[in-house]
User: Which sequence fits this backbone?
């Protein structure tokens, strides 16, 4: 059975992180989101995978090649213009000839690996189509799925008020009937051809669409940067291992689950409080403090007297000394001056809001730091306010108190 992984998304709400990479390549636990999904499919026995790509698709090709490193075969199909999930599935139709049933999964959401395996095992026993669903406290940003005795009876549009309910988790076992319904699908209010609208057509035609409810921690839709932090936390926690391949100097302490990859060194006086994941060739300390759920990419430096808490620090970023990174995301090749502070708690302790597409959006989090794109540089003693985003290539001058978002290649002076 083949799997179609939808990896064409740009992820505009995840700016500035997606200005320089496609959404599926954003890292959690030091690997791209979509790689987590690919590994889950392989673990479940799926070896033939079709990746639908578009925005910066060459970066996805370069990362995974023919799939041999993941013990699968990957074929690429390009969606010429992103026009929605139904159109993406239709784009893959030419490589699904002869496949009566096939998997479709969003390549930019987080799935717990065992949950994917369980879903496919159950769905394979069902007649018709099976879609994964999940119970959430706020279904307003997803739309509601109504089901009776395990069978989907209705899929509702996004609702205006917040309420709990069952939502679409973006994982399906499809039949070829979906291609006919895709042809009948019209553009949604967003101007896209939605796969859920195609399913509505099948439901109206009395075709069987089953609901498989995932566990509370099995799936996370990733729409905003703070969702990436939550996904990273779940991925780091799921490793549940202590694997120290790097060098730990005398006087350094590692507590709890931790992954320290080859070539990395934990210098004297440093403390790692797991779960944490440290990539290859990193340098930590001396006297640095890494707190739970921190994930560092390859060749990252966290220097003397620095503290990193519940953050994603991407490859080749440098945090040399006396800085605090809390509940933040630091892009690739960033260089932070001494005393750089990412404030992660509002002074009034209210929920942190962040600007998305010009509008303030609640993160739902009491603690949220800064979101830095690639190649951002800060001078000494820079303070960045909660929820602020910094575009790629920006410079923040010494002593700056950064209270608002900074555009790409911007200059922010004290």
Assistant:
């Amino acid at each position: 059975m083949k799997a179609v992984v939808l990896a064409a998304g740009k992820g505009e709400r995840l700016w500035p992180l997606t200005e320089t990479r496609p959404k599926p390549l954003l890292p959690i636990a030091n690997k791209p989101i979509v790689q987590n999904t690919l590994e889950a499919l392989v673990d479940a026995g799926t070896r033939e995978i079709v990746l639908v790509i578009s925005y910066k698709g060459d970066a996805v090709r370069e990362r995974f090649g023919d799939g041999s490193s993941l013990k699968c075969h990957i074929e690429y199909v390009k969606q010429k213009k992103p026009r929605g999930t139904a159109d993406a599935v239709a784009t893959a139709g030419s490589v699904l000839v002869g496949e009566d049933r096939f998997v479709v999964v969003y390549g930019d959401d987080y799935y717990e690996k065992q949950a994917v395996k369980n879903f496919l095992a159950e769905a394979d026993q069902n007649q018709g189509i099976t879609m994964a669903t999940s119970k959430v406290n706020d279904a307003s940003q997803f739309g509601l799925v109504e089901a009776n005795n395990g069978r989907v009876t209705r899929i509702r549009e996004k609702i205006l008020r917040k309420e709990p309910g069952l939502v679409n988790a973006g994982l399906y076992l499809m039949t070829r009937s979906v291609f006919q319904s895709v042809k009948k699908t019209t553009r949604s209010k967003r101007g896209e051809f939605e796969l859920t609208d195609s399913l509505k057509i099948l439901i109206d035609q009395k075709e069987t669409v089953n609901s498989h409810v995932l566990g509370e921690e099995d799936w996370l839709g990733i729409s905003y940067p703070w969702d990436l932090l939550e996904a990273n936390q779940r991925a780091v926690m799921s490793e549940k291992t202590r694997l120290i391949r790097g060098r730990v100097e005398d006087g350094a302490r590692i507590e709890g689950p931790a992954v320290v990859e080859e070539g990395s060194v934990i210098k004297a006086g440093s403390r790692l409080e797991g779960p944490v994941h440290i990539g290859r060739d990193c340098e930590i300390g001396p006297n640095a403090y890494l707190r739970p759920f921190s994930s560092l990419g390859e060749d990252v430096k966290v220097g003397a007297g620095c503290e990193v808490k519940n953050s994603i620090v991407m490859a080749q970023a440098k945090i040399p000394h006396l800085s605090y990174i809390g509940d933040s995301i630091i892009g690739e090749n960033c260089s932070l001056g001494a005393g750089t502070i990412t404030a992660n708690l509002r002074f009034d302790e209210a929920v942190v809001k962040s600007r998305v597409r010009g509008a303030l959006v609640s993160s739902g989090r009491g603690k949220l730091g800064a979101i830095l794109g690639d190649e951002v540089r800060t001078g000494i003693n820079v303070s960045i306010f909660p929820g602020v985003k910094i575009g790629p290539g920006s410079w923040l001058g010494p002593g700056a108190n950064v209270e608002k978002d900074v555009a790409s290649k911007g200059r922010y002076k004290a």
Q: What stands out?
A: The helical segments are 33-43, 57-64, 85-91, 113-123, 177-184, 195-204, 225-239.
